[in-house]
Batch of 2 targets.
Target 1
Amino acid sequence: MHVSRDTNAIFFRLGPGDALPDAIFARLREAGVATGALRAHGILEHVELRTFSPQTRTLGTSRTLAGALHAIAIEGTVGLSEGSPQAVLRALLSRETDAGVETLSGVVASARVVALEVVVTSAQDLALPLAHEPRAGMAMLGDGASPSPSPSPSPALTPSPAPTQSPTPNP
């Protein structure tokens, strides 16, 4: 078990034409994230999705989903692979079809972003590796590294401006 005593939350958006997962990984590098938890939601298109096969205990071959899909939830655990932050992006997607609403899930191998909002909770004092877990057939956090600082310095964070209140109308 690894416990972080120094966490930060990082918020960002990806826009039209950004490619997953590379655009997320680039933002993680920019922010100096080595280990953390990622959540996202938005609209994706041309999604390449892989699902777990219980027979082979690995991720199966990719299916390409054409058109736009609602990314209801994307989650992943961030860890290091060859010194760079990576994550397995697990997604719950939906789309309207002639037969009604279709819900799909799996690991996003690639996708093009229409709009995506991402929140990352970064464990600033941990740098844990991602390692292939043979029983699950996918990358998961490994036990190898002990607590250490992020692989690259975090940029100076700009605090968000204080929210403004609307004037209250006089009765």
Target 2
Amino acid sequence: MAENLPEFDGVEHEAPELNVSLYQNITDMDRHSELRIEGLHPKIRTKVREFIKDAEKQGIVLRITSGFRTWEEQNKLFAQGRTAGGKRVTNAKGGQSWHNYGLALDIYPIISGKIVTNTASTLWKMIGEVGRWAGFEWGGDWAKFKDYPHFQYTGGLTIKNLQAGMMPEDC
């Protein structure tokens, strides 16, 4: 499996294959979320799984909709609401997002089989608490650009540290 992992160097990579044997040990997590976890930096995968399981203990089912992104994918998202149609969904260009280093994920709660996108719901505050408790910075806490589905693991680093080649060590 290790040979399928992204290098987290800003270069476009093939998506890793799902580790099915690992999934069989995860009772409540869906294949979609597990595939995205497998694409994250190896140092945070366990932390993400614990976050999801802790949310489940609170009665909250989460779906990971985004994890690692290439710089090209990030630039396409950045173009939304600027040079491309749609509303703005990010302020980060390629190389400026924690997603580009495999250290961020976007999640949504699922209720009755449907993804909940209403960020006014108090459910998001609960999810934010669980994510913070698991050691993630929550986009819902940001003052200027609230991004409720976004969680990132910084390990005390900044995006400039990541751009310089540093990675969190204390996961």
